Amino acid sequence: xxILQVLLxxxxxxxxxxxxxxxxxASQKPAGFRTNILVCIAATMMMSLATLLVEDKGGNPxxxxxxxxxxxxxxxxxxxxxxxxxRGMIAGLTTASTLWVVAGLGxxxxxxxxxxxxxxxxxxxxxxxxxxxxxxxxxxxxxxxxHLKVKARPYILSSLRKLALHxxxxxxRLTMKQxxxxxxxxxxxxxxxxxxxxxxxxxxxxxxxxxLKID
Length: 215
Hints:
Elements: H1 2-26, H2 33-56, H3 62-82, E1 84-86, E2 89-91, H4 93-110, H5 114-138, E3 141-151, H6 156-166, E4 172-179, E5 182-192, H7 193-204, E6 209-214
Antiparallel strand pairs: 1-2, 3-5, 3-6, 4-5
Helix pairs in contact: 1-2, 1-4, 1-5, 2-3, 2-4, 3-4, 4-5
């Protein structure tokens, strides 16, 4: 029965962590679908283990508190790895916060509080989706249209997508055509002025750019 209970907790962790991960993946964040699932099931397993030690092995109830504290502290290092500084600007705070929150969700599931876990998940997704739209609508985000002329290299699209992912920018209407020994690239994205400047500086550091025009 205990094994079945732990298995059900892990399945719930995969489902709820996966829902949050899907939103992160759709937003092109570095910590996406699999990362959020792994964080959630790891926290769930650790709390389930602590619960089993207390119930079956006569462990100290303080074990639960220490395990929760250990998980939250440990996930802080993972979250810190998603935060980066570029030219004096900080990025990745929402991703780091999401990982920290998902670890907390795993602890709630592991402790056996299923209804609070469902409510918690709904609040997380609402914050990421609904409030994200409010942020896009009202916090001074603009539409930028880029036109690039670059040397024809097979890796240029891959480099561009990695750069966009790194800066949390979602490229729209991406087109590419060849003109002689060059590629003509065009794309758009919505971002704040600061984020657009970060992306622009990163783009200029890429090799093989012959011409850049921004509308």
